[in-house]
Write a structure and sequence with these properties.
CATH class of the largest domain: Mainly Alpha
Helix content: 25-40%
CATH architecture of the largest domain: Orthogonal Bundle
Pfam families: HTH_36
Protein name: Helix-turn-helix domain-containing protein
Number of helices: 8
CATH superfamily of the largest domain: Winged helix-like DNA-binding domain superfamily/Winged helix DNA-binding domain
Shape: elongated
Number of strands: 8
Number of domains: 2
Strand order of the largest sheet: 1-3-2
Radius of gyration: 40 Å
Order of helices and strands: HHEHHEEEEHEEEHHH
Largest sheet: 3 strands, antiparallel
Strand content: 5-15%
Distance between the termini: 102 Å
CATH topology of the largest domain: Arc Repressor Mutant, subunit A
Structural class: alpha+beta
Length: 289
């Protein structure tokens, strides 16, 4: 690989990204004399394109004067791999799809601008190609903070979007038994504070300000709000939703509607199973003695 040719190829505009990639690949394979002989399928594989595309762009590079092809044959007349001779020191910056090597003229109306270079090698002075730095020092880029909303802002947006009212239907409500038993010792971590404190209800997941607590008591008058919040807080510890505010309000609204309609949930129990009379088993005649 010739670093000189790679630097020159990097600074030349050929008007097409695939063509530029092919030129860089040829420069990567070339020796210091600008000679290389990779096969077309190999170039196509390395540049992730087709053989036809490689042949088309190489012909365009020949027309632009960036290389010339030496066709070789064996003693028996069979084709051998072509030798590509890069002539990048004769080229300058090329613009658009109509580049011209050596000196590039761009005309706009009555004005004409010609770009040329005295040397195709990288470095300072009057070179037509930019200086290429091959330093191995890391480049420190500025850190750009993403312009994304915080978690509290997302919860506020979702709470406003999914604001629940008693008369509104709840999409895909979950069915949760509303047993009015006293919470166990594990539920004592969710407590109700004085309304003068920061939270009126504070659990591991669910935390309601006095204003929200009063609003939910107004929205869900048929529920024991403290009990339901304690139960939901336990549930959310094992399976935390993306927005506990929206999920809890939807479930509470569903439970409140069920309670308003007089629907109650009965716990399935086998306590009196043995006391019930299920009749007498009658054995067939062939089973009798």
């Amino acid at each position: 690989m010739s670093m000189n040719l790679m630097a020159q190829a990097m600074g030349i505009k050929v008007g097409n990204p695939i063509r530029k990639l092919i030129l860089l690949k040829l420069a990567d394979n070339a020796n210091d004399q600008g000679e290389c002989w990779p096969s077309v399928p190999y170039i196509a594989h390395q540049c992730e394109t087709t053989d036809r595309s490689v042949q088309k762009h190489i012909q365009r590079l020949v027309i632009d004067g960036l290389l010339w092809i030496e066709f070789r044959k064996t003693d028996h007349g069979l084709n051998k791999s072509n030798v590509y001779h890069l002539t990048l020191n004769k080229a300058t910056q090329v613009g658009g799809e109509c580049p011209a090597p050596g000196g590039v003229a761009f005309s706009s109306g009555d004005e004409s601008i010609t770009l040329s270079s005295k040397s195709g090698t990288p470095g300072g002075g009057e070179s037509g190609t930019p200086r290429i730095s091959h330093s191995f020092e890391p480049v420190i880029e500025p850190v750009i903070e993403p312009n994304t909303p915080t978690t509290s802002e997302i919860c506020a947006i979702e709470a406003e979007r999914f604001s629940i009212k008693p008369e509104e239907p709840i999409p895909n409500p979950g069915c949760f038994p509303a047993q009015r038993n006293s919470p166990s010792a594990d539920t004592q971590t969710a407590t109700v504070h004085n309304l003068a404190s920061r939270y009126a209800f504070e659990g591991k997941i669910i935390r309601l300000t006095p204003q929200d607590f009063d609003s939910w008591q107004t929205l869900f008058p048929h529920l024991d709000l403290v009990y339901e919040l304690t139960r939901l807080d336990l549930e959310f510890r094992h399976d935390t939703p993306k927005s506990w505010f929206c999920t809890a309000s939807q479930k509470l609204n569903y439970q409140n509607k069920r309670a308003a309609d007089g629907t109650t949930f009965k716990r399935v129990s086998g306590e009196h199973f043995a006391k019930k009379d299920y009749g007498t088993t009658v054995f067939p005649a062939w089973m009798e003695g």
